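Human:
Focus on the backbone:
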Amino acid sequence: MTARPEPGAPPSRGPRSGRRADRGQAVVELALTLPFVVLLLLAIVQVGLVVRDQILVVHAAREAARAAAVSPDDAAARRAAVGSSGLEKGRIHVTVSGRGAPGSTLTVTVRYSAPTQVPLIGPLVPDVGLRAVASMRVEV
C-alpha cells in the first residue's frame, strides 16, 4: 500500500529532484560571487606590490643619503637610489637638501610613482605616490 499525499501538499517529484535543484542553485551562486572573489584577490596582490615598492623606496632613500654623505655631487645620490633599488628609472625623483660642511646633517627625499599594473585593478586605481626621507651626517 502506498502513502497518499496530504491534501494541499505539493506533488512529489521523487527522491532526487531536490538535489538536482540544489546543484543548480550552487552553480548560480558561484557564478555570481566568483567575480567579486577574483577582484578581491587581485586587489590584495596590488596592495602587496605597492607595499613592496614602499620598502624599495625606503631602501633607495638610505642608499642615496649614504652616497650624498660621501660625495658632494647630487647626481651620485640619484645614481645610488636608482641603481640599488630596482625601481623604474623614469618614476623616481631624488632631492638632496641641507648639505653643509662635514659633520652637518643632510636630508635626501625620494619620491616614486608606483604603477598599478595588476589586470582589472590597474585601470581602476591611479598610480600611487610613495615617499621616503633619510638623513645622514656629511663625511666629506
Summary: The first strand starts at residue 92 and ends at 97.
